[in-house]
Amino acid sequence: MYIHTGIKAFSCEICSKEFVTLLEKKKHMRCHKNYKCSECPQIFKQWSKYQAHLKSDHESKEYICDICGRAFKQRTHIIRHIRIHDPSKVIQCPYENCSRFYSRNSNLKQHMLMKHEKITHDCSICNAKLSTKKKLQEHTVKMHKSEQKVRVPKTKLMGRKVRKDIGSLKLSTALQLSGLPATSEKNPVEETELVVVNVA
Fold first, then answer.
1. What pTM did the predictor assign?
2. Can you tell me the mean pLDDT for 173-184?
3. What domains, with CATH codes, occur in the chain?
């Protein structure tokens, strides 16, 4: 009845957001819960992420490679894996004494950068070494979501007018959250300081 009138008769008791149907409200209420996995210690804020985790990490259904016997939890992963058994679709690492084969150029490149060229992306919080910037970002969000280190640079420009772009906003926000005083030409920041800012 309310769908055709547009009247939002159902409201969230927590955030007061309004909904036309009870079903919409029930779906919304999931965002106010944490979903703890019964199989492992992980906690999820979104129902969809929790469901995806259960399916990928704990679902007993496995896809077994007929050629080598390796097991996969997702169909897409075994499809990608099967390519390594087709000689026309694999690429061997060009470095001497390396017997690694890859079915994707991106994986080969990642392997060469990390294993042979020793290029890593280091976490500034726990010094973990990750192979790509994306993996570093994912690691930071997953492992250090409650804290973030913000580097306040040595500068004499803090008292001047600066562009209101993302960088200066981040610096301004970091200064406010850290409790450090905003400086001027008369009182510049003398050295770089490392500030831990809670992001929760």
1. 0.32
2. 58
3. 1-45 (3.30.160.60), 63-116 (3.30.160), 147-198 (no CATH)
